[in-house]
Amino acid sequence: VVMTIIVAFILDAFVFRMNYSRKNREPLDDPEDEKGIVFETEVSQTEALQTLDLYKHTLGITNLSSLQDMCVALERSG
After folding, report:
1. What number of other Cβ atoms are within 10 A of residue 67's Cβ?
2. Between 47 and which of 13, 34, 43, 68 could a Cys-Cys bridge form, CB atoms 3.0 to 4.6 Å apart?
3. Which residues form the signal peptide (predicted)?
C-alpha cells in the first residue's frame, strides 16, 4: 500500500511538472498541445455512481454536472 502511494505521488508530480512546463513556454501553433496531458480510463456504471456518491459525501461538491450526466447516460444505455 505504501509503495502504491509513493508511486502515485511520483507520477502525479511528474505530470504536474510536464503540464507546468507546457504552460510556461511560448504558445505553439497546435491548440491541441495546450490542453496538457489527459488520462482516460474505462469505468463501469457502478464505479461511476460510487465516485459520484464519494464526492458528494466527502467533499460536499454540488457542481458535479458532468459526472452526473455521465451516470444518467449510463443508466439510459443499460
Report:
1. 16
2. 43
3. 1-17
* Cα(15)–Cα(11) distance, integer angstroms: 6
Q: Of all residues in the chain, what percent carry a pLDDT higher than 90? A: 0
| Angstrom distance (rounded) from CA 39 to CA 37 | 7
Judge if 24 and 53 occupy the same domain.
Answer: no
- pTM beyond 0.85: the answer is no
Half-sphere exposure of 50 (CA within 13 A, CB side): 5
The range of the structural domain enclosing residue 69 comes to 41-78
For residues 23 and 52, state if they share a domain.
no
